[in-house]
Amino acid sequence: MKRQMEPVWLYFLMSGCGIFTLATLRQYPGEGYIYVTFAVLLNALLFLGLKRGSIFFDTFLGVFFWIGFWLKFSVRMVFMEGKFHESVGYFDYSPDAYDKALLVTSCAISGLLIARLIRGHFLFQSMETLKLSSLGGVRELYDEHRNTVWFGFCILVLGVTLTNAYLGIYQRGTVPRTLLPYGLGGVYTWLLLFGAASISAVLLHFELQLREKIPYLLFLLMLSETFLSNVSMLSRGMILNASALLIGCYIAARAYHISWRLRTVVMTLVTLLLLFAASIFLVNQMRIECYGQNSGNSQCLQPLQVSTEKVGNVGSKLIILIMDRWVGMEGVMAVSSYPQLGWDLWEEGWREKYSDRGTSLYDRKISKSSYSRQDMSNRHFISLPGVVGFLFYPGSYGLVFLGMLALGILGATIEAAVYKWGGGNVILCSLMALVVAYRFVHFGYVPGRSYLLFGTLALNILLIYLVGRVFAKKRGTGELASLGE
Q1: Has residue 243 been placed in a domain?
Q2: What percent of the chain has pLDDT over 70?
Q3: pLDDT per position as a tens digit, 348-380
Q4: Cα–Cα distance for residue pair 176/231, rounded to 1 Å
Q5: Reported pTM
Q6: Rounded distance, CA 299 to CA 195, Å?
Q7: Which of 60, 143, 195, 321 to pair with 238, CA 20 to 30 A apart?
Q8: In 162-257, where do the E strands start and end?
Q9: Domain boundary, last residue among 126, 154, 182
Q10: What are the beta bridge partners of residue 358?
Q11: Of 79, 101, 126, which residue is a domain's last?
Q12: Total structural domains within the chain
């Protein structure tokens, strides 16, 4: 799965990062070489994730860490005197405190870079060489009932998102208002988070294989699913799944040597931006309605009052969402300055239990965020230390390095498995790589429940594989050819 990228874009970006690094260095209060090491490692992670030959996991993890650590820290240092929007606990803003936080981060990024080196030289460089499962039977069935399949997909999405918005089965930051029997609540959560997006990834993959193009209408349906799902669960992260699917479509088209119509590209990108802005506005207003109620969020679907002032706030909310709300540097700053680091804290972190109400161990003891001082009897707000911060709970640099090394190899292996058992579907690979990278970055609350996410990912791929095998046998289809053939 080779990724082509215009080198001018990448080198232009890296040149800009180099200039901004020098500007930040002048403001950095600690040892200059520590910040330079920090900046070089994070920009190298981004560069390797964007250059040709990288896998989707490299790309998303590189972008997430670059925004959450280097970009956030450098912007805050240059323009805001190193002060952060989120709580940083015992961090005292001294030169030594800054140096320690950056050393912990640099140790973690070194582990990721070594993991990428190991994967490229000893495990696999490209997933095109992997033997693929057969989805030919499902593809033929889709071709025969294309309109019916998309109509059914739309009905599924509307049914799930509307009932979830009304019943409050799974919504961010709220206590569930409806508990469904027989595990149906878990099905809702899966569909809203990435299940419905996985279905659209498979359908878009079939479109490229059968018709060598994707009409704008299908892009619109895919974007509408991400919009409705995120608004339904009070999430402002619509841009994530939508971007992963579009990036996957772009890479798949390049692999199949398919050219896009400029009109389709422009209309799709404009639609994405408009829906993303609309989702932020709607979710912000719905959160005010839901979180402001003391009676179980019973009025989440009250009519929204739209004003010029509210619409004008979207821009400022978007800036905070892009940078300050991204888990990263604050978590490491808070953890590295916590006076009671040790293996007891590490064990306590792993023992943390999930609750629909209240906040996290990290909020209460380490970051001392405002959530720990609010009434959480009917809410569920948490801050996160991130995977780097959590790995430093014992105060061990070695654990941070080895932990990130292992996670880097694990993430790449998961993507390879998705490619192999998902019929070479690079759109699905992109989506699943995003889910895994996002989980690694947003780590630290109830880590023992991570098996639920990774188990769901495994079941997601297993379901696709089994359906493909069943229909392949019924229709006598063979293995799919690898990309590029």
Answers
A1: yes
A2: 82
A3: 999 888 877 777 788 888 887 766 666 555 666
A4: 16
A5: 0.86
A6: 27
A7: 143
A8: none
A9: 126
A10: 380
A11: 126
A12: 2
